[in-house]
Amino acid sequence: MKAYHLNDDAGAGGLVLADVSRPEPAGGEVRIRVEAASLNYRDLMILDRVGQGGLNGRVPLSDGAGVVDAIGSGVTQWQPGDRVVASFFRDWVAGPFKSSYVPSALGGNTMDGMLAEYVVLPATALVSAPAHLSAVEAATLPCAGVTAWHGLVARGGMGKGDTLLVQGTGGVALFGLQFAAALGARAIVISSSNEKLARAKTLGGSILINYRDTPDWDAALMKATDGEGASHILELGGPGTYDRSLRSVASGGKIVQIGVLTGVGPKPDLARLQWENADIIGVTVGSREHFTAMNRFLTDKAIHPIVDRVYGFDEVLHAFAHLRTGSHFGKVVVKL
User: Fold this and answer.
1) Are residues 325 and 14 in contact, defined by beta-carbon separation less than 8 angstroms?
2) Residue 194: how many CB atoms within 10 A of its CB?
3) Which residues contact 259 (CB under 8 A, 6 or more apart)?
4) Which residues touch 46 (CB under 8 Å, ≥6 apart)?
């Protein structure tokens, strides 16, 4: 079979297509014929540090969907032909997060990912693909979808009457926007593109702010909400947006901290959290239990993920390059 491997070369040369042996499932394992895999900002960060060593031979990408191809002994919950999606953390099945789950993140420092024609995973690391979604759509769910669900719904309790601030129009942001619309929450979207804001409006965005035209978007948000602010904030930017997020959060609100897209910088002043009785919820994706609950919601509400562009298996470097431009609206997917 063919699989992409990271090596120790810096830049695009750090990702190569290789011919390798097709893996065989051991007891309790399942082999999946991968049909699609999607990219996340994390994958760019990993590719950018391959020149530092330590990733040679690693199969990248955490997100992938496909069909069960073979099962090992003792597997009863899956059968060949079942449509499945891999969970981001192989070992986080249910319950609270534990630091011991970190090494089981697919496509990272210690665990191979989904950018291969076939992969083998424990039966417990898979969920059923929602029947109404294609493989391309299902492949977008493990990281971005589960992250938004875990932070906003499972822990954030977002519901009807709440107000969500969404930063940008990437994968996590648009899942958050779609969840808010389906739950009856009001959504505020900030972006540097009027075209993207117009598209976000069709997904349920009700207050749209171009932060290039309105750098003080936090003041604009407070004005648009009559001084109340946002009850839920998807904090995706990091140091470049955090202080404005703090000034935008409503009394008793929740900042769901996910990203560091603007890099590492000065620490924000958290004093306002105390005076507003607000919370910060730190989120790194979620468990298989979160994934399963989200899939039920997607099915019940007939939600389809937003796919920006689909590339072929031989176009993976183009997919990475497109993601790096930041011009995408939704998810970038590789179809096998």
Assistant:
1) no
2) 12
3) 41, 172, 235, 236, 237, 238
4) 6, 55, 60, 107, 108
The pair of structure tokens assigned to 308 is: 């920006």
DSSP for 197-235, please give it. HHHHHHTTEEEEEETTT-S-HHHHHHHHTTT--EEEEEE
Per-residue pLDDT reduced to its tens digit, 10-37 = 666 789 999 999 999 999 999 999 999 9
User: Residue 119 and residue 238: Cα distance in Å, rounded?
Assistant: 34
d(CA 330, CA 203): 12
- pLDDT for 248: 96
For the stretch 247-250, contacts whose Cβ atoms lie closer than 8 Å and that sit 24 or more positions apart, written own/partner, are 247/218, 247/219, 247/222, 247/272, 248/165, 248/218, 248/221, 248/222, 249/273, 249/276, 249/278, 250/163, 250/225, 250/276, 250/278
| Residue length of the chain | 336
Identity of residue 312: G
Residue 326 gets the label, from left (phi > 0), alpha (psi -120 to 50) or beta, of left
Q: For residue range 210-268, list pLDDT tens digits in order.
A: 999 999 999 999 999 999 999 999 998 777 788 999 999 999 999 999 866 555 566 77
| Strand residue runs (E) in 117-217 | 118-122, 126-128, 163-167, 186-191, 205-210
Burial category of 243 from C-beta neighbours within 10 Å (exposed 0-12, middle 13-18, buried 19 and up)? middle
Q: What are 233's strand-pairing partners?
A: 165, 255
What is the pTM (predicted TM-score) of this model? 0.95
First and final C-alpha spacing in the chain: 12
CB 33 within 8 A of CB 117: yes
| Phi-psi category of residue 207: left, alpha or beta, with phi > 0 → left and psi -120 to 50 → alpha | beta
